[in-house]
Every structure is written in C-alpha cells, then in structure tokens.
Amino acid sequence: MKIGFLFNHDMLHQIAHTAPIAAELAADGVDVSVLCSSAEQEQRVRAFIPPDMPVRFVRLTTSGLANIANSLTGGVIPFRRLGILRQNLEIFAGFDALVVPETTSTLLKSRYGLKNLKLIYLPHGAGDRSIGFRGVTRLFDFVLLSGNKVRDRMLRSGLITPDNYAVVGYPKFDTVDLDHVPRIFDNDRPTVLYNPHFDPLLSSWGTMGEQVLDYFAQQDRFNLIFAPHVMLFQRRLHASLEHRRIRLRRKIPQRFFSLPHMRIDTGSSLSTDMSYTRAADIYLGDVSSQVYEWIYRPRPCIFLNSHHAAWRGNPNYAHWLLGDVIDSVAELPAALDRAMADPARFAHLQEQACRETFGVSDGTPSSRRAADAILRFMQRSPVPAPAPAYKDMRAKAHLSF
Description:
The chain is α/β, with parallel strands linked by helices. 29% of the residues lie in helices and 17% in strands. It has two domains: 2-169 and 359-400, 3-Layer(aba) Sandwich (Rossmann fold); 191-356, Rossmann fold.
C-alpha cells in the first residue's frame, strides 16, 4: 500500500492538518511519501514527522512558464499549482491513495484521468463558509471530517455518502500544546486578536480594517494582534468566482508598525500554529474558520458585518451566533466593554459548537483516528493496478529523504 500526502499551495497553513496523519501511517509500516512543491513546505512537514520515521520526501517541480504565469497574475489564477498537478502525473499514478487538504487535486481525476488513484480529503479548517460545501467534494473517494456539524451539512447536501466518510476530530490540535498561553506583549493589558479573512466580499479588511487599527492605535486599554488569514497579504488582488467579486487589497499604513501595544503579522508561522489564538483574550473577525480554533477555549468573540449580510438563519454564518455581531467600527468600543464585563456570556454556545465541530474525544489523538480510518477504507477498496517504481519517476521530481 503506497499512500502519498500532497502539499501544493503557495502558503504553509494547510500542512498541520494532514502531516501528523502521515507520521501515524508510517509508524504502522505503510509506505508513506510526502509530496511538496517547495522547500519551505518540506521543512514545515518535517517538523511534524520524527526524523527516524521511514517517510519518503518528494519535491515536485513544474515548468518555468507556469511559474512566470503565476507571478504575472499575482496568484489570482493558480498556474503553478495547476502546473504541479499536470506535470507530475506519473508520480501521482504511482500511489494507491493521495491524502490532500484542498480540492484543486480533484483535477487528477476529473481532468487528468487518474481513475485508479484514491483521493482522500481532510478539509483544512472547520468553518461555515459556503466554499467548504461545494459539489467538488463528491469527487473524493473518502472524506475525513472534524465533527458532526460538518458531517451533517455535507450529508444533507449530498456531498458525502453514509459509507465514504469518517469523523476523526481535528489533527491540527495534535500538533499544539493547547494549554500553553504564549506571552506576546510585556504588559498586562487584555489582548484583542483581529483576524480578517481574504475573501473580497466577506472580508472586513477592505472597508473597516484601517478604522479598526486606528481605534486600537489611539487607545491605551488593549493590546492588538493584527494577524489576518495568511492569504490576505500574499496577493495584491483577490478574486472570488463564488461571489463574482474582485478587490484590490489595501495596504497597511506605516504608522501602525512601530506601536508597542500592536503587533502586525501578515503571515508568519505564528499565524498558523495557534500562537495568537492561544495568546489573546478577545477575538475580532469576520468569516475565518480560525474562530473555531479560538473557541476550543471559550472566550469573547466580536464579528464585523462589513458586507451587510442577512446572517441570521444562514448556515454560512453559524459562527456569528457565538459572539457579538456589529455593523460598524463605531460599535466596537461598546462591544469590547460587553466582552470585558461578561466574558462568559457566549461560553455555553461556544462549548456546544466546539463539541459539534470537533467531535467528542475518547483520548485518542485525531491523527491516530484519521490513520485508522484511512486503513479501514483502503482495506475495503479495490487495489489499483501495480504502480511504476520510484526509479522510473526520478526524471519528474527531486527526491530527498
């Protein structure tokens, strides 16, 4: 049984969701390979896999033309990711299954004809946005889900069937000491985490972001961590086919970078390893799935309705029931006052949402449950035709161990 773990994205935020599963399967004696499209990805994955674990690392490459096209479009059209898939088909065909945290990989089946390759999907995050519940999910052979909330919605939508999924929890939690609270500032002020998304319609950054930073810059009651979704500042132009919207991302004025009570982080590893969600006291955001990582330890949330959504009763905004929703930055001071006066106001709802989102743990790590689910699935699935040997693939990739 040969199982590959593919990491094919511009940033590193997806890695912690599936890399721990690779280590578990390798410990079981499964032939595991990690396929990365950059040196940075490989370095991050290696941090989650013990050095004595027999995991093969494969560096995928693509043409210079794809890289140039990717740069010229600012990544709005992911030419490099598409090129990685198209130009490494021989490598992908050598696996019985490929585990992925994203949906672009379904092109291997829908466009490139790798019908024998089993695609196993673990969504990178457990949010409510509609983009996480698209028809492309039906192209996966097996889906690993964090909890009942996502399972029930996917079943209702016909995206999964009763026999092609498993609820396994949230493997990213296995990589983090959830009880450790990092110290970011050298004072005792309460800390607010501002975490806007990058979606050109849903993000609060384009219309409210600078006002939010101005408010915190001019007050002396709170610290502020500005740590948006890592993709927000990866691109200058953001486009959404789903919402038919395109927006030029606003820059951060220089006046905010030198303030001692404000930290600006547009994409370091601290933005993806839950350092900030563990360190802060109040969450301020819009639609990012990071809010579900936040409520693992219930604390106040404030949501900015910058796009005037009719959100009540809409499953795409279910997380907005877990805190205050405000329509303007002028309402922010009062919302912060409510959060400080009654920090447990939404705790019961958050605890319930956490159970539904991440399942009830029996003490078994989520990555172990995911590995067991993959093994059960593979044991009941037909074995594809024999795969070509790795020595025949070396012309298509750089291998390192």
